[in-house]
Structures are given as structure tokens and as C-alpha cells.
Specification:
The complex is a heterodimer of chains A (128) and B (369).
Chain A lengths: L6 E3 L4 E6 L2 E6 L1 H7 L2 E5 L6 E2 L4 E7 L3 E5 L4 E6 L1 H5 L3 H4 L8 E5 L11 H11 L1
Antiparallel strand pairs in A: 1-2, 2-3, 3-9, 4-6, 5-8, 6-7, 8-9
Chain B lengths: L5 E2 L3 H6 L3 E5 L2 E6 L3 H10 L1 E5 L4 E6 L3 H8 L11 E8 L5 E11 L2 E6 L4 H10 L6 E4 L4 E7 L3 H5 L15 E6 L2 E6 L8 E7 L3 H12 L4 E3 L2 H10 L34 H10 L3 E8 L10 E3 L5 E11 L4 E9 L8 E6 L2 E8 L12
Parallel strand pairs in B: 1-3, 4-14
Antiparallel strand pairs in B: 2-3, 4-10, 5-8, 5-9, 6-7, 7-8, 10-13, 11-12, 12-13, 15-18, 15-20, 16-17, 16-19, 17-18, 19-20
Classes of the chains: A alpha+beta (128), B alpha+beta (369).
């Protein structure tokens, strides 16, 4: 599995793709594999603000529930409605069609605390 | 701790298929291969194959076997024909459950008990403690592997691999036959709500039987299925899981096992306590429910009243792959245990509405004569 070079990653297996002052957030392919068949996705609402590390919602699979944490602080400007209706998108395409929310980033310097694709791949290699 | 875990004879087969392995009842078992939902639907639509070698096999033999065993279990085994199996329960004197099991009758002097993996030692000790006279009790669990093939295509897949006349094995009957030339107890039973067979074989025969079934099953879309799908399938079919839906804190009546309790057969352990409870009336009962809102109600989540106080608990809960809704079983106060009653379940801090529905949630008309 390729982990896109232009994404940032967290130790909790979220990714964020930065576009200007905005960031699109999802969970990684590694995370979806650990979870198994995803059946429900709980997402926040537009307008809600989160600090880095705060839970923004949860992903429920057949066997377990996992919280999703905000990689960097920001305000939700868009939520992926398609994923709410078709949660299995997170299994089949975690890095693209399975995106969860889009935020306006509060402070881009917080991105420096995140992992790049190489560091993230090292992390998951250790875990497996 | 990991070094004490047991492997079944099929462990390497599961690794070959990239199964995700988990610890279950002291064994390393496949929880899924390609995905719980896909495996579950394969069983409902075509067929699935399961390694259930972790289950226990205990033999009862001796001239007084039938008389003695009938006092240990709740169902009436005197009604069994030779080569017939019966769903049963062993109860404590207070009417709570030691284990649920299948009793296989060879003849009045010989029975095989198939018991839950997690309870093998406990069940064996219980039988030994309650032994009377010359009855012989043998734990042969480590000598047997077990493969279940379940689904409407199961019989077609097994047929070319055995000389045994499968059509003559009716539901809940078994015979001593063979599969690919290996001795096998072929039982028309299962834990999925579909037609199918459970094969008891020697450990050294497990791999050849497994591989032959997989190969023959390819054209029928046979899929290997793990413990994840085993749980979702049995729950849809309204079948109970010991440890979740009943244990040593729930009586057989509370768990809804009335249909396998035969009060009129004579004495058995737990009978007095159950009669008393029947007389006084149950205070709570196990019911099936369906969530009316998104989410999954899982084992141990509280059933609450309008004030948020816990009045019961969810014993098992899943997202049903076939029905595509959240279902489960829960212990609720007897006043609420009516069909269509609305109950409230606390799902990780959020109270969600559910409705009591009949079980089984899913059933397929069995294709046996």
C-alpha cells in the first residue's frame, strides 16, 4: 500500500492532506484493516471546532469502535456525506473516497508535529 | 502467556490464507480471512468452511450411561435414537448454566458430548464430580479436529468427497463415515442457521480434509470463515453463546432454554430450582432486540430506564450482515419482555432506542426430507 507522500500522518493512524489553509482528514489504510468491516461512521457537524488530538467522531466496525482524533486544530467546513451513507468506502478507499472531514486549519505550524509518509510506514512496520 | 496458547491442526492453513489470528479459549484461532461480512454472506448465499477444532469432545460410556447422563442434563436423552444428536444444557443446582452442548447418542452405553472450548476442563470436572457408579468419562478433545461446512451448497461440496450417503443423514443425525478416505463422524448440525455438516476427524486428517473441501468448493464459491462470521451467523439464527447469553448467573429459564428443559422426565440437576422459579415467576428474561437508531449495542452495554438507571444488559449484539441492521440479545425486566416493547440501551454514553423483536432474526427452511 502506498502512503501518499504529500499527506501528513498521526500516531493514531489519521492522515491529513493540506490544501492551502484547509486540510482534508481521514484514517489510514492500516487503520481500516485493523478495524475490519466498517458499518457506521459518526462525524461532527460543520462549524464545530477541535483542538489537535481531540476526538472528532468515531468509526464503528463489526468488531469494535475506534475514535478518530483531529490531527491539527481547526474548524469543520465540510463533512463527507457519502461516507455516512456508505461506510464501507473507508475500507475500500481510505485515502481518497473514504475521507471524513475538511477543516480550516487554525495554525499550520502544528503540522510539524505530525509524521511524514516514511515515518508513518516505519511506525506501522513496527506495530505489525 | 502467548506460549501457553494451543494451535489447531489447521493453524498453518489459516496463516497460508492470511487469516487474522486471535486468542480464543486458549487457542490461536482465525477471526477472519477476507472480512466478517463477506464470509458471513458466503455462508448465507453459498457455503463457508470453519475450523472449529477448539471445541471439546467428551465421551461417556458404561452400562448406566443413559440413566446417569439423563440426570446431568436438562433435555430428555432417553428419547434419542442411536446416531441422533440433541441440543442440551448442564445446570447447577440453582438452575444456572454450566454449559450448553450437543449430546450425540451412539447407543445407550455410549455418548459423545460436544462442549464449548472455553468450558472443556470445567465440564469434565463437573461430570467427574457428579459421577455415580461405573460410568466412564473421557476427555478426548485433544484427539479430535473439527471442520464445519455450512450453507446451501455444503452438501454438494461434500458429496463427491465421501462414499457416505449424505442425503440419508437427516437434520441432527450423524453417522460414522469417511471423507477423502479418512474416518469421520459426519453430523448434520451447525451453528449458523443454514444446512450443513460438522465433521469430527483425527488431527492428522484435518489438513487433507480441509484442503479437499476448499478445492472442491471453489466452483461453488466456498469461503473459509472465521470466528467473527461464526458469531454473526449464530446470532442472526437466534442461537445462544455461553459466556455471553447465559452463564452461571443466569438460569436456564431466564435464558429462554425452556424448550430443552424436560421437567416431566424425572430428576436432573437444577430441576428443583427451576420449578421454584417457574412457580414464583421470572424477574427477567432474555429477549431479541433491534436498534432503532444507528450504532451497535454490544455485550455488557446497559439497558436503561427513562431516568438512565441500569435495569438490564445486552448479552450479545452485532450489526447483522444479512439483515443490515443492528440486532442483539438482552436481559430485560419481565414487565418489558414483550414483543414490540421499546427499550433504551446506553451505547457508550448515548441512550438509543431499541425494539423487542422475535428470534430467530433470520431463518432458512431446512433442505432435509
Amino acid at each position: 500500500m502506498d502512503y501518499p507522500e504529500d499527506y501528513y500522518y498521526t500516531k493514531d493512524h489519521e492522515w491529513i492532506r493540506v490544501q492551502g489553509n484547509y486540510g482534508i482528514i481521514g484514517i489510514t489504510d492500516y487503520a481500516q484493516r485493523q478495524l475490519g468491516d466498517i458499518v457506521y461512521v459518526e462525524l461532527p457537524e460543520e462549524g464545530q471546532s477541535f483542538e489537535a488530538g481531540e476526538p472528532i467522531g468515531s468509526i464503528e466496525s463489526v468488531k469494535t469502535v475506534a475514535e478518530v482524533y483531529c490531527p491539527v486544530s481547526g474548524e469543520v467546513v465540510e463533512v463527507n456525506e457519502k461516507v455516512a451513507a456508505e461506510p464501507e468506502l473507508v475500507n475500500t478507499d481510505a485515502h481518497k473516497a473514504g475521507w471524513l472531514i475538511k477543516i480550516r486549519i487554525k495554525d499550520k505550524s502544528e503540522l510539524e508535529d505530525l509524521l511524514d509518509a516514511d515515518e508513518y510506514q516505519e511506525l506501522i512496520e513496527e506495530e505489525e | 502467556m502467548k506460549n501457553n496458547l494451543k494451535k489447531t491442526a489447521l493453524y498453518d492453513e489459516h496463516k497460508k490464507l492470511n487469516a487474522r489470528i486471535i486468542e480464543f479459549a486458549g487457542f490461536l484461532m482465525p477471526v477472519q480471512y477476507t472480512g466478517v461480512i463477506e464470509e458471513h454472506l458466503a455462508v448465507r448465499n453459498d457455503a463457508g468452511i470453519f475450523d472449529v477444532s477448539h471445541m471439546g469432545e467428551i465421551w461417556i460410556s458404561g452400562t448406566k450411561s443413559m440413566e446417569w447422563l439423563n440426570k446431568i442434563v436438562s433435555n430428555d436423552i432417553t428419547r434419542l435414537q442411536p446416531f441422533q444428536a440433541q441440543y442440551n444444557a448442564m445446570l447447577y443446582p440453582n438452575g444456572t448454566v454450566v454449559d450448553d452442548l450437543l449430546v450425540y447418542k451412539y447407543n445407550e452405553q455410549e455418548y459423545m458430548l460436544c462442549v464449548n472450548a472455553a468450558n472443556i476442563e470445567k465440564d469434565f470436572s463437573w461430570l467427574e464430580e457428579n459421577k455415580i457408579g461405573e460410568v466412564k468419562i473421557e476427555n478426548k478433545s485433544s484427539e479430535y479436529s473439527q471442520i464445519a461446512i455450512q450453507g446451501q451448497k455444503a452438501i454438494e461440496i461434500l458429496r463427491p468427497l465421501t462414499k457416505t450417503a449424505l442425503d440419508e443423514i437427516k437434520y441432527y443425525r450423524f453417522c460414522l463415515g469417511e471423507v477423502v478416505g479418512r474416518k469421520a463422524i459426519i453430523s448434520r448440525t451447525g451453528y449458523t442457521g443454514e444446512d450443513g455438516f460438522e465433521l469430527y476427524i483425527a488431527n492428522e486428517d484435518a489438513v487433507p480434509v480441509w484442503e479437499s473441501l476448499l478445492k472442491e468448493g471453489e466452483k461453488h464459491h466456498l469461503k473459509p470463515a472465521g470466528l467473527g462470521a461464526r458469531d454473526t451467523l449464530r446470532l442472526e439464527a437466534g442461537m445462544l453463546l455461553y459466556g455471553n447469553d447465559m452463564d452461571n448467573t443466569t438460569t436456564a429459564l431466564e435464558a429462554g432454554l425452556n424448550w430443552i428443559i424436560k421437567f416431566e422426565k424425572g430428576d436432573f440437576i437444577g430441576k428443583e430450582a427451576l420449578l421454584k422459579q417457574k412457580e414464583k415467576g421470572l424477574k427477567r428474561k432474555l429477549v431479541g432486540f433491534e436498534l432503532m437508531e444507528p450504532g451497535i449495542a454490544r455485550h455488557s452495554y446497559s439497558v436503561v430506564n427513562n431516568e438512565g438507571k441500569s435495569i438490564g444488559y445486552v448479552s450479545s449484539g452485532i450489526f447483522s450482515p444479512f439483515l443490515k441492521k443492528s440486532i442483539g440479545m438482552a436481559y430485560v425486566p419481565i414487565e418489558l419482555a414483550e414483543l414490540n416493547t421499546e427499550i433504551l440501551i446506553d451505547i457508550r454514553g448515548k441512550v438509543k432506542k431499541a425494539k423487542i423483536v422475535p428470534m430467530p432474526f433470520y431463518s432458512r427452511k431446512r433442505i432435509t426430507k
